[in-house]
Amino acid sequence: MKYLFYLILVLLLVPLQTTLLPHLSVWNIKPDLGLVAAALVGLFAGELDGLLVGLAIGWVLSLFSAGELWLSLLTNGGVGLLAGFLGRQVSQVTSISLGVGLLLVSLASGLFAAMNFKHLDMSQMWWMVESIVLPQACFDGAVGAGLYWLLSQRFHVTRLRTE
Amino acid sequence: MWMAHSRSPYGAKRLALACFALLLVALFLLPAQIQGLLQYLDGPVGHVVRVPLEAIASIDTGIAHRWEQYMALQGVREENQQLRKEIEWLRGQHSQLRESAAATERLTALLHFKEQALPTMIAAQVIGRDATNRYRAIILNKGESDGIKPDMGVVTPAGVVGRVVKTTGASSVVLLVTDPNNAIAGLIQRTRDEGIVEGTQQGLAQLKYIPLLSTLRDGDRVVTSGLVGGFPRGLVIGTITSIDKQEGALFQSAELMPEVDVGRVEEVLVIQTSYGQSTMTGTGADLLGKPSP
């Protein structure tokens, strides 16, 4: 059942991210649902599930992006793994703390991606950070916090996390 | 938030760490091999993902069309009048061009030029945008199984859209002409000076490496040069809007307004072969207004 859920999640993420989200983008920036999904799976299901689902999401999304495969694998897989570790160490996660965590992780992965762009001088790099990386990190944090809040309203999330 | 150790399967933690470490090492030491390994799986996975992707894309297109048909009819009358005026103007242009074409045909026959075969094209539909914010790219509903390969040029009847950079069995990713990572060989139509067209971060394009002695000016059209890449010669890329000529620089550059509004493009043509490589097939060629064989 769990694996069927993961499969549906990965399959549905692609049309959500590539077809529907561009309509909901703000200043041409859309949230990275793959990153948010990997973090939530890691948080609720542990580091191994987080890592594997993150890697699957990273791989499938990279098929529908002009970006590099390795970067997508590393960021999504890494976020799943990190969220899994944090989920085991922190007993009570609030939507705000999750949002801040996702913001920081998204910021780090965005900066890493920007540094991997070839032929970018300092002004271009700064432009990319302030107009793409930073807004996207805020967006990711807000979406993650919102989703976690919705889940916590519907389910007993602490029990979900520790069981 | 407080710290607590919940029930933790120690084996799972170690396994996850080991997997991630192994992946890191493999990605850094054997990047090509990992990519090659995953490419075997790209085809089948692409076919599976295409099903929900096309389903949602068709719902999205349906809603957009309904919106256009019923809700967004404001201003249609004014637009209609403007289009009628434009048709009148284009009719005049058309008759002039027919005269020019007839003259060109006569001169070509006189000079015994070899007739160029028109390119083979595949019509495809845009079903999505790049999954990340870092690239300006679109996703097409045709892929390797339809004969699309990386580096093929993508156009609309209006002009150049971009270049195929990635394919799966059933879909392909096109890097738009407005992406800074894209580079297309361009030619200023009036002066015949060549340069490289690249995207800008602001979502426009620029022509770089133009010779200093070039007499280009605002409003000049830039077309594909056909020398390298997947584009035949003469496809419109954009119009020059400003020129940047710095003292002491070896070249000048110019900012372009792309001819195609790449943010709204819905159907495109993928150029399978350039001039002179094959005869033309049906599908997309009609969209460019070129005669079928």
Structure description:
The complex is a heterodimer of chains A (163) and B (293). Chain A contains 7 helices and no strands. Chain A is an all-alpha fold and 163 residues long. Chain A has one domain (2-15, 31-162). The longest helix of chain A is centred in the C-terminal third of the chain and has 33 residues, at 122-154. By secondary structure, chain B is α+β, with helices and mostly antiparallel strands. Among the domains of chain B are: 81-114; 120-179 and 266-288, Thrombin, subunit H (Beta Barrel); 183-258, Beta Barrel (Thrombin, subunit H), CATH 2.40.10. Helix content of chain B is 33%, strand content 27%. Chain B has helices spanning 10-29, 31-71, 76-111, and strands at 120-129, 137-140, 153-156, 159-167, 172-176, 183-188, 194-199, 205-211, 221-224, 236-244, 251-258, 267-273. At the A-B interface, helix 1, helix 3, helix 4, helix 5 and helix 6 of A face helix 1, helix 2 and strand 1 of B.
Extended strand count of chain A:
0
* CATH class descriptor of the domain at 120-179 and 266-288 in chain B: Mainly Beta
| Major sheet characteristics of chain A | none
What structural class do you assign from the helix and strand content of chain A? mainly alpha
Amino-to-carboxy terminus distance of chain B: 72 Å
Task: Tell me the β content of chain A.
Answer: under 5%
Mean pLDDT of chain A: 83
The count of helical stretches of chain A stands at: 7
* Oligomerization: heterodimer
Unreliable parts of chain A:
none
Provide the spatial order of strands within the biggest beta sheet of chain B: 1-2-5-4-3-12
> Residue share in helices of chain A?
over 70%
Shape of chain B: globular
Distance, first to last CA of chain A = 16 Å
